Each structure stands twice: as C-alpha cells, then as structure tokens.
Amino acid sequence: MAETKSSCLFCDISAKRIPSETLYEDDDLIVFKDIKPIADTHLLLVPRKHYKDLNGLTQSDEPLYGKIVRVAADMAKKEDIQGGWQLFVRVGKGGGQEVPHVHFHLISGSRC
Fold first, then answer.
1. In terms of Cα–Cα distance, which of 102, 87, 97 is closest to 42?
2. Is 103 noted as a catalytic residue in this protein?
3. For the chain, which residues score pLDDT lower than 50?
4. DSSP 30-81
5. CATH 3.60.21.70 is right for the domain spanning 9-111
6. Per the residue annotation, which of 42, 101, 103, 105 is the catalytic one?
7. pLDDT for position 112
8. What pLDDT does 111 receive?
C-alpha cells in the first residue's frame, strides 16, 4: 500500500511545487534531469504514487513498474543515447537510496 508523505521532495516535484527540468510526465510518472548527475546523462523516473522504497510494492503495482521500464527505453531513444545505458534503483539507506520515494536512475555516458 502506498504511503503518504507530507514533506517529500519527489512528491513536491511531481506536484510542481518545486521546479525541475521535466522531460516527460503523465498521470503515473514524471521524468526529469537529476540536479546532481553522476554521468553525462542522468535522468530520474519517479512514480507519482508515493512509496518509500520498493519493499512496499504489491502485484497490483506491476503494470506501473513495467511502464517505467518502457518509458526508460523511450527516454533513452529520445535523448539519442548511443552505446548503451543503465537503469537502476537503490533501496534503503544501505542500498544508497538518498530520497525516500521510489525512483529509477537512467544513466549513460562518462561518469562524473
């Protein structure tokens, strides 16, 4: 079940309370450039539905997470990424997650 979080950075970005360089959005997710990129291309794919991390997902969430992978591939094409890219998610502090809202990183190019 989704959590509610009154003070969530990515919920605020999704709701346009905080500006971002948005590249894609629909009712389910938003894609924007990371403000602290770790590679030449570093996009964040963020579901609008708030989950602290992947541990709370259920089977009913599978269509959304399949859509995230498809949108990632579409964004890689739109950004004209050549030579490959990575899509990853960090789970919990021990996994390197810094913002407690599920988000996927799409990166490509030289690491910063």
1. 87
2. yes
3. 1, 3-5
4. EEEE-SS-SEEEEEEEEESS--SSGGG--GGGHHHHHHHHHHHHHHHHHTT-
5. no
6. 103
7. 64
8. 85
